[in-house]
What we know:
Helix 2 (39-48) runs parallel beside helix 3.
Amino acid sequence: MAESGKSVILLVEAEALRALARKVTLERHGYAVINANSGNKAVEIARNTAGIDLIVIDIDLGRGLSGAQTARCILEDREIALVFLSSRYELDTAAQTEGISCYGYIVSTSADAVMLAIIRMAFRLAEQRHEIVASNALVAAASAQLRLINQRLPWWPGIAECVVETDLSAMAILDRTLNFMYVSDRFVHDYGVADSWAIGRHYSEVFAQTPPAGPDVLQRALSGEAQRSDADCLGQSDGSLESTRWECRPWYDAGGAVGGIVLYTEVVTQRETAALPSMRR
């Protein structure tokens, strides 16, 4: 399409007076027209000119390339809508253009109204084809993504479980009501709770003493805000205190809404105690 917003037609016709009359008619009805008086010239223009939307090409171009040969040469280089011109439409015409993607035929002696109607229809058909091609490309991309997902499915759960269970941080997943949905082995070890006991229980029940993250932190996480602390104290049932660090962040359901909270915690008391002698030195 031209910068003016007009659709661009390459008009390929050897007979000069007819080509001029057709050009004037097309321009009067809002099209931008480029003329070529031979098949070779048309191929050159098509190869070197961007923005051509439609080619109207006479089957009989005299000496040199015929209209059908010209069309085949152009279509080898680019995908473009074609309409053929012919002084008459007979079986011989159909034989010459067999196998060429064509959006219509115009008999040279047709009234301007008929020519314009066929050209408008050609533009509509071309647009519909482009939409179908684009839609097919989206389907192909989605199919490729689905194949990739299906290839990952057999091994992904095992990898995910390995990563979670061997992480140095204790991990727990809570729903929006702050009931436990999952706890890792590290969580069971660090907090002395059985996973079968913790699942389904409320956060405040599992952490009856000082919780790693307070109620305000949990509510902010449910609002979509991730938070962390690198130095906190967690009260134990025997009255002792453990130094911990934690991170609290939301997880999201398939619809993009916050589905609950993922809580990562790590008891670092021993690490800090071990570091004290070297700090004193």
